[in-house]
Structure formats: C-alpha cells, structure tokens
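Quick start: what a row looks like.
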Amino acid sequence: MPSYIIRRLLLIFPTLIGIVTITFIVIQFVPGGPLDQMRTLLKGHSGVLTEAGGAAIQRPGSQPGQLDPEQMDKLKKIYHLDRPFWERYLRTFLWYTPGQSTETTSTFKKVFNRDNWEGFLIFKFGDSFYRNKSVLELIKEKLPVSVSLGVSSFFLTYITCIILGIAKAVKNSTRFDTMTSVIVLIGYSIPGFVLGIFLIVLIGPGDGAVAHLIPLAGLTSAGTPGYEEWSLMEKVFDYLHHLAAPLFCFVLGGFATLTMLTKNAVLEETKKQYVMTARAKGLSEKVILFKHILKNALIPLVTGFPIGFLTMFFSGSLLIEQIFTLDGFGLLSFQAVIQRDYPIVLGSMFIFSLIALLGQLLTDLTYVLIDRRISFEETQG
C-alpha cells in the first residue's frame, strides 16, 4: 500500500501539468480575448467615450473602436500578452524573477525568497484581469457560498438517500416503495433552476409573491440595521432561513440516483448465500440487515464518500446562484470564462483538478479500509 500511494502521488504532478497545458492552449486560441473585448467595448461606446474625453486612447483619424498602438501595447502589458507564448506558458507553472533591491542580498536568499517566484506549483495564481484582486483572494471570498451549499447538500443527500434506500429495500413492492419512487422520480425530473424560479415567483421577495418567505439575497442579513446586535441563535436561524430555498433546489434532483442505488444494493445482498445462512442460524432480520447486509451493500456508497465530499465542497450551480443572488464559485467561473479572465480560469482548473485527484486517491484507500480483501498490490502484480 505505501508504494501504491507513492506512485499515485507521483502521477498527480504530470496529470496536473497535462490538464493545465490543455486548458492554457485552448484559452490562448479561443477568440474574444481581453483585447477583443476592449475593441468591442470601444465600438459600442465610441460616442460616449469621445464626449467624455476618452478619444485619447484612439488613434487620431482612425475608425471608432480602433485603439492607438501605444495604448494597445499598454493593454498587452496589463494582460501579460506582450510576452512570448513559451514564456507565458512557463510562467503559468513556475518562474523566477529577481526582486529589485538596493540592499546587498545574496543569491541564495534571492532564490529562496518566495516573493521572487510565481506560478501554480507554489500556489501563486496571479491577479484577476478585471477584479483587481488575486485569484486566491477571490476564491476565499466565494468559499462561504460554496461551503454552505456543497457541504450541506452532500450530507443531506447522503443521509436522506441511504435511510430512504434501506427503507425502500425492506418494504420492497409495497405502497410505501411505490409512493416514494414516484416522489423521488418527480423531483429528479424537475430541474433545480426551474424549481428555483417557481419558488421565487410563489414565495419570493417580489411584490407579486403569495408569501414573502425567501430572503432578498445573500446567505445572511448582514448589513441590515441591528444585525450586529442579534444573538447567536438569531444569526443561526437567519443563516438557515437564507440557505433553505437554494439548498432545496440544489439537492432535489440528487435523491433519485443514490436512493435507487442503495435500494438495489441492499436487495442484491439479500439474495446471497451468507444471508440465507444467517437466517438458518436463527438471527433476527434486524441483525442480518444492520450487521451483515449493510456492511457489504454500502461499500460502493461509502467508498465514493471522499471524492463526492470534495466535489460538492467546491461545486457551484450558476443558475441557482443567479436566481437566489448568491455569489459563489459557479458565478465566478462563468464570468471568468465569458470575460476570458485567464488567471481565474487556469487557477480554478488547477485547484479543482488537484482536489479531484486527491479525492480519487482517498476513494481507493477507502476501498481497502472497508474491505481488507482488496489489495492494489496484488491486482497490479
């Protein structure tokens, strides 16, 4: 097992290099980059810019929206497009730039000074083109929304689906099984954003709503008069109040797959020989179910727990965030792609890929912890 873990950790590095390389090449050749967007902006607002004195960034006698060459060079420098392709590619991973200092500093200290290095391999993703913030700062700002939706929806989905799936397997082919299947499948067939729009229209903050049960925006009422004076319980209930509607829309469609998987896994185990042997020994159905059947039936669900948790932790739903006015990773990623904000696109891809690879490794290790009969060494041998 130690050798297997070391091999998997060593494979993470070239895999990340490949993912970021492909993403880097794609975004470099996709039209509509920062310079193209600036030209489009000038063409659409050339008259307003001229009246406001903005004609200075246009070449005299040129067509509206055509940038002056000097201004074009400045924009290229701002967006780091003045550098050669190979240099931009290497700077993405690791690049050394000696700091300008009047003091006598040894080469050793300069090389080991983190401020003189940049690149993803030391988790320095650069600054956003349009938000005047570093990528890490933006990710930290979006964490509350992603953590709230991701972690809450993950545990709610897992707990509900496992309990419901076991109950459906125990009461297979009964009225309870049929009714819950209908409810789960109806929820699966309704897109989350459609349900979100329905809730906003019906019980949202708008004037036409039947009841005003959904807050206006955000995860808390921070900023409203008197919020800082609220007690801890009042703030907790306010947080749950803001989270309820988007969380309901976020998890509704995820119940069907996990519930039916749990039910079918339990039913499959009940047909095996060891269950018949346990019944022949006179064990009660509860002991057989919770001590023997679930131990084997839940292996596929439990082993998917690490990567599922990490994925949901950093996941985001663009449409749900837009509907309920939540500023999370979904909205950030979408805006970064539309605006060609390369540092955010590449930084997010790097972090998500790293988390996915580590989650897959944890999933493999969970297999071994749950079922000692599994050995990756023997399989590879």
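That is the whole record. Strands lie at 95-96, 117-118. The mean pLDDT is 79.
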